[in-house]
Each structure stands twice: as structure tokens, then as C-alpha cells.
Amino acid sequence: MNRIDLHTHSCCSDGSCTPTELVELAAAAGVGAIALTDHDTVAGIPEFLEAGRRHPEVETVPGVELSTMFSNRELHMVGLFIDPETPVLTAFLEEMREGRRRRNEQIRLKLNTLGFPVTWDDPAFAGASSDSASIGRPHFARALMHKYGFPTMQSVFDRLLKRGCAAYVPRELPDPARAIEVIHAAGGIAVWAHPVYRERNERAWAKRIMRRFSPLGLDAVEGYYSMFGPQETALVLELAGLYHLAVSGGSDFHGANSPNIQLGSGAGGLLVPPELLNGLKARCVARRAAVDKPGLP
After folding, report:
1. Spatial CB neighbours of 96, under 8 Å, sequence gap ≥ 6
2. Do the beta carbons of residue 249 and residue 243 sit within 8 Å?
3. pLDDT tens digits, 124-176
4. Model pTM greater than 0.85?
5. Which numeric CATH code is attached to 4-93+173-290?
6. Residues 6 or more apart from 85 whose CB is under 8 A from it?
7. Rounded distance, CA 164 to CA 102, Å?
8. How many other C-beta atoms can be found within 10 angstroms of the C-beta atom of residue 72?
9. CATH architecture of the domain formed by 103-161
10. What is the pLDDT of residues 181-200, one digit of tens each?
11. By Cβ atoms counted within 10 A, which residue in 13, 16, 98, 260 is the most buried?
């Protein structure tokens, strides 16, 4: 095993590949372990694990990425090694899905008002799910590209969909502590995803979050990520040591929806050390022992 990728997305949320295709891509790229971490859904995990059984050279890790809000800023918590059928997780995800349905309908109505009408039967939405809860802004961007001639998905975001634009709708999001509790209830470990963004005061922000949430059960932090350079990785690794957190990493692969990001290698320079997987598993064993959920999937 020469690399791992513990942050990927399928067409069950806002990626373009099926869960099976993700595993096949990992096998072809020599990625020894891959986690499926779709946004606020575990719908793709059964197919993902079944594909893993056909590719024993790839270790498949069931996961999820939960969106939360703290101090007016989104925080994403990745759960790794989860049991997707845990009732607490199922109920939480249904809450999140209902919030997505409301938001997506608001976005659709805003686009209609702005002169860019779309309907749920648009082909761009077909790969998401049987209802609008699995749809994200990339689906809207793709629909607008196809229907109204926008040159790129980014151009749609820049004109209509990103924060501050006319069709943007803020999300209703829970506190990170609740997401951490839900991940633990599902037998998993909680990883703070992409914690820094090369903005000012990111060190202070990262320290604030780790200091607040490590006593509340935060288990790990992403130190290796597609958009990180050496400085960002060094910062996260330093703070992870300071707050006794394990380290994870992944590409945040979305397939054709983020064409510059490749599974396992990110923008070309990503290499998540495979030995991190053992540390994450050890943290999972300790966490499950603490909540009386022994064993690993």
C-alpha cells in the first residue's frame, strides 16, 4: 500500500462516479484504502462495500461527511468506520435531508425568479437520487450549464450560486458537537475535514476549533488535502500533536464535478501516508471501547 484516500464522494451526493466506479478507480490507481464520505448520506455505502469485496486489494472504509456550523462558519465533520444502519445516524441524516430539500427548493425558486427556470426532472439531477435531498449546488450548476450555455460550473457559481450571489441560500446546520456525538453513536471516529483555507488567521481559527472540540470527542483532523501545500500540512500536523488528535487525509474527489482533483493524488501532489490508517483504526478501537462498541468493520 503506497497511498490512501479517506475523503471521496460519489453520485449519491455531489460526485459524478458511482460507488463501484470509485473502488475501481482506486484499484487502477494503486490506492490501498479508500473511504466513501458522501455529504449527509450513506446511501452509497452498501454498493461501495460490495465493490470492495470484488477488489480485495482495496480496503473500503464506510464514512460520511456531515455539515455543521460554528461561529458563522461551516465546519465539515467526516465520520470514518461508521455503521450506516445505526438508528441515531439514520434519524440525524433524515433531518439533514429534509433541510436540503427545503434549501434546494428555495434555490430552484430563486433561479426561476432570476430567469433561469429548472425542474427536478432535468437530466442533470438524474444521478443524484429519487428526490431532491441528495441534490447539491453542483447539480444546479450542471443543469444551468446544459440549459443556458454557461461555459463552466465555476461560472455558474460565480454568477448565481456562491455565497453572496442572487440564488444562494444559506443552509440550516447543527453544531459540530452534535455531529461528533452522532458519529460516535454510529461506531465511528470524527475527523475535522479541510480545516484551513489559506486565509488570514487560520492558525488561530484551527487552534480555537481543536481546543474547543477535542475535549468533546473530536478524534482526528485532515492534515493531507488536495488544496494544502507544505505549510498547511505542517500547521495541521503541529496542532494535531498539540491537541492529541490523530491525522487523516484525502483528496475530496468529486469526479467530473471537480476535474482538477484526481482520486488518490488530488491536484497531482497529494500523498496521504498509508501508515495513518493504523492510527485512525487505533483511535476507532479506543473510541468504541469507550462507548461499548468493540471491533472494527
Report:
1. 40, 66, 67
2. no
3. 776 554 456 667 888 899 899 989 999 998 999 999 999 899 999 988 899 99
4. yes
5. 3.20.20.140
6. none
7. 19
8. 6
9. Orthogonal Bundle (1.10)
10. 999 999 999 999 999 976 66
11. 13
